[in-house]
Amino acid sequence: MNLLVGQKVSIVSPRPQTTRNRILGILTEERGQVVFIDTPGIHRPYYQMNRRMAHLLEESLRQADLLLHLVDASIPFGSGESKAVEMIQAMGRTAFLILNKIDLVDKQRLLPQIDFYRSHGNYAEFVPISALTGENVSELLTEIFRYLPEGRPMFSADQVTDRPERFIVSELIREKVLERTREEIPYATAVVIDRFDESKREHNWVRIAATIVVEKPSQKKIVIGKGGEGIKEIGTRARLDIERLLGCRVYLELFVKVVEKWRNQDRFLDHIGIEG
Ligand SMILES: Nc1nc2c(ncn2[C@@H]2O[C@H](COP(=O)(O)OP(=O)(O)OP(=O)(O)O)[C@@H](O)[C@H]2O)c(=O)[nH]1
Ligand SMILES: [Mg+2]
């Protein structure tokens, strides 16, 4: 979606369960407008947060005209995918199976995968792509335009997402935390924007203060790092991305705070904008 709309509107990380919201990516060209809906994936509903996300996923699948089921073609396939296949079949909508990451696999290894999905589901098209190199992505877009129903554009031509800058800023900070942490921390991290001061934007700078929320004091210690090294690096990397997004200089202040069991607190989830 980021590649197609030409901007990082949805953050990316090697950790699973990165996406927690419903994020639109809007592509407008001469042929027409495509509104992509990025959603959380399939989660085990241990926490209230994950139950919200499961609900959001289902709602989104219901709203879409075309379902794009992305799978990672570089890892073994089979049982882990059957839940997703089932879910998509249950929607009774036109669906494509997209085999992503073909930059990492032998083309011959794609055929057995396509056979598997062909026999387990009712997909209209099977499209191998690489979101990294862009291979076959324009062909995918051609197929998407072929299947989508016609309608009036829903957004202006220059809009690439429905999400405000503030949201993307918080996500970019979270992305940098995910890059640096492992095990439970990525799942236990949320980012709250405390201040987004644009009063100097005309003079080419914006002042932002944000809090990285974790669930335990031990996690806070790891995020901050030895002598504050961790938080410093998160701040530097996030600032560079945010400056690119906003097109001006950014003064970024970061804090780390513990909120015990926030993933089960409805009020906190509302506060950080986890819909469901
Ligand atoms: N080699 C390669 N890596 C890719 C490609 N597309 C995505 N990745 C990597 O795969 C990982 C997962 O990407 P995400 O965009 O976070 O995946 P997602 O499906 O949105 O996952 P969640 O949001 O966690 O549900 C990241 O490390 C990406 O850099 C690709 O075409 N080739
Ligand atoms: Mg994602």
The H-and-E topology, N to C, reads as HEEHEHEHEHHHEEHHEH
Beta-strand residue percentage? 15-25%
Largest sheet: 3 strands, parallel
Low-confidence runs (pLDDT<50, min 5 residues)? none
CATH architectural designation of the largest domain: 3-Layer(aba) Sandwich
- Taken together, the total number of domains comes to 2
Structural classification: alpha/beta
Distance between the ends: 22 Å
CATH class of the largest domain: Alpha Beta
Q: What small-molecule ligands were found? A: guanosine-5'-triphosphate, magnesium ion
> Could you give me the name of the CATH homologous superfamily of the largest domain?
P-loop containing nucleotide triphosphate hydrolases
User: Total number of β-strand segments?
Assistant: 8
Overall, the morphology is globular
Q: How do the strands line up in the largest sheet?
A: 3-4-5
Query: What is the residue-mean pLDDT, rounded to a whole number?
Result: 96
By CATH, the topology of the largest domain is: Rossmann fold
Helix content: 25-40%
Describe the fold and architecture.
With 276 residues, the chain is an alpha/beta fold. The chain has 2 domains: 2-147, Rossmann fold, CATH 3.40.50; 165-271, K homology (KH) domain (GMP Synthetase, Chain A, domain 3), CATH 3.30.300. It has helices spanning 2-5, 48-63, 79-91, 110-120, 137-147, 165-180, 185-188, 217-224, 229-246, 266-271; strands spanning 23-29, 32-38, 67-72, 95-100, 125-128, 190-197, 205-214, 249-258. The strands form 3 sheets. A 3-stranded parallel β-sheet has the order 3-4-5, sandwiched between helices. A 3-stranded mixed β-sheet has the order 6-7-8. The chain has a two-stranded antiparallel ribbon with strand order 1-2. The two termini are 22 Å apart. Guanosine-5'-triphosphate is lined by residues 12-14, 16-19, 40-41, 100-101, 103-104, 130-132.
